């Protein structure tokens, strides 16, 4: 069996690591890296740290408007599918790389395996929502991380080959958590103490591409006294600079370059609170029982909202502040599986 995997963005490298490891015990996997993320701290670092095999094809598509970026990927992936004739094409999540891979394969009648299927925010203004819906509707195998995701698919009449196998990101956290504790010096490097800082990540287009939303978020940050550490996504850095907004005036804020996965797990595990708009980071906060404040109006990860483990605040300054001040003690419930999602995916493909 030959599987062609399409990856392109940071969270996809992290999701692919546990699946590739299990898949390659028995089968042939070829990796296409679209080049959607290309800075070494957004791409190479994850391949190295997580021992993901080097991509067999690097498309070098880079940044661009949605149509151009997705279109270039589509054309190039199509050529590779025609040449390699894979049995399956595997995609993860909801980026433009996901959609391009799924469309290219479906049109050539190569069955698509979608990992992290069925997620919905019900906000079609998010590019990710379009990508997910389209991908799910052309996929042959839909591996969902939660019951909610299965239910979302059922509501769109997708019921065939739908499986809740748990979340591959949970596999990744369990596999790397101790390694991170052993290897990462990130707290020392930045003079941080355990439970002595808040961790920030912001990169969603709905926040970064709206100057008023960014101003609100930064106003809230400037009113939070505690130390804050912010590994800044290149999109956010570029947008702030185009708005002429500087971060130097925000007290006790350490803005750092994006970090590798082991450093990120360490920053998350030891944070007092995590303030984010990232999908993956919301889940990791929950896995690690660190209270999370999500700077969005909706979340796909509704399970994390139980007991205020994760609080949705949008970009309202007062809501952000009161959620950060709220005393909560999250405890992980097994709603994201048992950390064996990768094995279950491979077994299910094998048994079909
Ligand atoms: C993409 C995904 C988003 C995912 C995120 C993970 C889409 C539509 N969006 O958003 O769902 O949550 O990845 O991080 O697929 N840039 C660099 N260097 C890089 C990569 C990006 O400088 O290595 C900058 C460029 O200015 C680029 C911008 O970031 O224009 C946005 O990159 P892009 O990949 O288009 O979208 P993300 O915001 O990263
Ligand atoms: N991440 C990382 N370094 C960083 C920021 C995030 O390794 O500086 C990891 C994080 O731990 C999670 C994933 O990247 O596993 C989340 O990716 P991102 O927030 O870019 O995208 P999303 O999950 O929102 O699609």
TrEMBL record:
One Gene Ontology term of the molecular function aspect: isomerase activity
Protein name per the record: UDP-N-acetylglucosamine 2-epimerase
Enzyme Commission number(s) of this protein: 5.1.-.-
Family in the record: Belongs to the UDP-N-acetylglucosamine 2-epimerase family.
Alphabetical keyword list: Isomerase
Segments forming domain UDP-N-acetylglucosamine 2-epimerase: 26-350
The organism of origin for this protein: Bacillus methanolicus (strain MGA3 / ATCC 53907)
Domain of life: Bacteria
Isomerase found in the keyword field: yes
């Amino acid at each position: 069996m030959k599987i062609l995997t399409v990856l392109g963005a940071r969270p996809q490298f992290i999701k692919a690591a546990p699946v590739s490891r299990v898949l390659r015990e028995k089968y042939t996997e070829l990796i296409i890296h679209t080049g959607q993320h290309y800075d070494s701290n957004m791409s190479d670092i994850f391949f190295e740290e997580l021992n993901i095999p080097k991509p067999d094809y690097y498309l070098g598509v880079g940044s661009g408007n949605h149509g151009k970026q997705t279109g270039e990927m589509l054309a190039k992936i199509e050529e590779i599918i025609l040449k390699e004739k894979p049995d399956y094409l595997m995609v993860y999540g909801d980026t433009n790389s996901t959609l391009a891979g799924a469309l290219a394969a479906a049109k050539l009648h190569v069955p698509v395996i979608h990992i992290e299927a069925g997620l919905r925010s019900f906000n079609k203004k998010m590019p990710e929502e379009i990508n997910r819906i389209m991908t799910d509707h052309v996929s042959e195998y839909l591996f969902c991380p939660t019951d909610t995701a299965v239910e979302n698919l059922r509501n769109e009449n997708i019921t065939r080959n739908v499986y809740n196998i748990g979340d591959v990101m949970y596999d990744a956290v369990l596999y790397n958590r101790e390694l991170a504790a052993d290897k990462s010096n990130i707290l020392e490097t930045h003079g941080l103490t355990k439970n002595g800082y808040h961790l920030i990540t912001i990169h969603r287009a709905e926040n970064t591409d709206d100057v008023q939303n960014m101003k609100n978020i930064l106003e809230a940050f400037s009113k939070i006294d505690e130390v804050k550490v912010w590994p800044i996504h290149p999109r956010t850095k570029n947008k702030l600079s185009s708005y002429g907004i500087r971060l130097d005036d925000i007290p006790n804020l350490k803005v750092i370059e994006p970090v590798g996965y082991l450093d990120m797990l360490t920053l998350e595990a030891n944070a007092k609170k995590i303030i984010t708009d990232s999908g993956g980071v919301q889940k990791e906060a929950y896995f690690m029982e660190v209270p999370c404040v999500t700077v969005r109006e909706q979340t796909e990860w509704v399970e994390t909202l139980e007991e205020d483990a994760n609080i949705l605040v949008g970009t309202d300054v007062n809501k952000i502040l009161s959620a950060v001040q709220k005393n909560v003690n999250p405890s992980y419930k097994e709603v994201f599986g048992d950390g064996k999602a990768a094995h279950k995916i491979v077994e299910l493909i094998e048994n079909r």
